[in-house]
Design goal:
The protein is built from 13 helices and five strands. It has about 325 residues and is mainly α. Helix 1 (about 15-30) links the parallel strand 1 (about 1-5) and strand 2 (about 35-40). About 40% of the residues are buried. The structure holds adenosine monophosphate and tryptophan. Tryptophan (TRP) binds near residues 132, 141 and 147.
Length: about 325
């Protein structure tokens, strides 16, 4: 199977990204042909600093490799280096209904957040994302819950294009983890954990033990004392989900372990679990620090491999649309 997923170069990689997306990528990479893309063009749609973008891209590549992406097995590259992405985005815009774009939850949220000087890039964002996916004849797109709607739109776009111009694209399928598809913020469990949130709300894969301890101990929990998963108790349910996924134990077993024990004891145990689970990521990232040249080579090689994979599809799309 062909697997494709993308992640933005801005912001820290947090445990929500890991449990929602990256953990699946690492599993899938064993037996599938995986393509992972650092989506710098998508990152331009919200305010950013051009002076540090290149640095962030390199850092993010190191972080992915530290998190388990193996550049010998998977293709890893930067979106803007493979021009076929932007070309296909234009071609796909021709079959994308404006009404579908207006429905997108992420657009509606961001349009609200960045009302002043709202840019068209933010509106067209899902078309570029569809191009990313469809360019590689992708079967599976491992993502967290917040991206499910965008993958669904990529399917619609593929279908419309195929109907109008003849079969060109594979219809991709989103793959969400059974648990952990939406990890909530530690400081506000009603909101998803997000890298644009304040750092108290998320735990980065590379946070120090001290930071992990401080953030978990201060995390917002609900009134009451019981360590029990329940839809009404968002804070403790979120922490239980995180505990369960990192310990690979069912929530029921964890509830039993902490029966008649308070939040503080549960939180302390979660701190230790996270410190130990994240230690290998911190170590691996250290190994790569300062190896800028090696990272640049990996990305260059990745872009070449990606372009070879993308070429037949872009040629086919151009031809079907009467451009060749
Ligand atoms: P982003 O951080 O928006 O670049 O997202 C990268 C990947 O992580 C996407 O597949 C998202 O769906 C996923 N993701 C982001 N935030 C969360 C979260 N709080 N819980 C689970 N998955 C997430
Ligand atoms: N929009 C995704 C996010 O913010 C990133 C992304 C861009 C992506 N292109 C993609 C994810 C293609 C999956 C497939 O998380």
């Amino acid at each position: 199977m062909r697997v494709f997923s993308g992640i933005q170069p801005t912001g820290e990689i947090h445990i929500g990204n890991y449990l929602g997306a990256i953990k699946q990528w690492i599993k899938l990479q064993k037996n599938n042909e995986c393509v992972f893309c650092i989506v710098d063009l998508h990152a331009l749609t919200i305010p950013y600093n051009p002076k540090v973008l290149q640095k962030l891209i390199l850092e993010k590549t190191i972080s992915y490799i530290a998190a388990g992406i193996n550049p010998k097995k998977s293709v890893i590259f930067v979106q803007s280096k493979v021009k076929e992405h932007t070309e296909l985005a234009w071609l796909l815009s021709i079959v994308t209904p404006i009404g579908e774009l207006k429905r997108m939850t992420q657009y509606k949220e961001k349009a609200e957040q960045f009302k002043v000087n709202l840019n068209a890039g933010l509106f067209n964002y899902p078309i570029l994302m569809a191009a990313d996916i469809l360019l590689y004849q992708t079967d599976i797109v491992p993502v967290g819950k917040d991206q499910e709607q965008h993958v669904e739109l990529a399917r619609i776009i593929a279908r419309k294009f195929n109907q109008k111009y003849g079969k060109t694209f594979q219809e991709p399928q989103a793959q969400l983890p059974k648990s952990g598809a939406k990890i909530m913020s530690l400081s506000n469990p009603k909101k998803k954990m997000s890298k644009t949130d304040n750092p108290q709300g998320y735990i980065s894969l590379f946070d120090s033990p001290k930071e992990i301890k401080s953030k978990i101990m201060k995390s917002v929990t609900d009134t009451g004392k019981e360590i029990k998963y329940s839809p009404g108790k968002l804070g403790i349910s979120n922490l239980l989900t995180i505990y369960s996924l990192f310990s690979e134990k069912p929530i029921k077993e964890i509830e039993k372990k902490f029966k008649n024990k308070g939040y503080a004891e549960f939180k302390k145990s979660l701190v230790n679990l996270l410190i130990n689970s994240l230690e290998p990521f911190r170590q691996k990232r250290k190994e790569f620090q300062g190896k800028e040249k090696e990272i640049k080579n990996i990305l260059e090689e990745g872009a070449k491999r990606a372009q070879i994979l993308a070429q037949p599809t872009i040629q086919k799309a151009r031809q079907k649309m009467g451009l060749i």
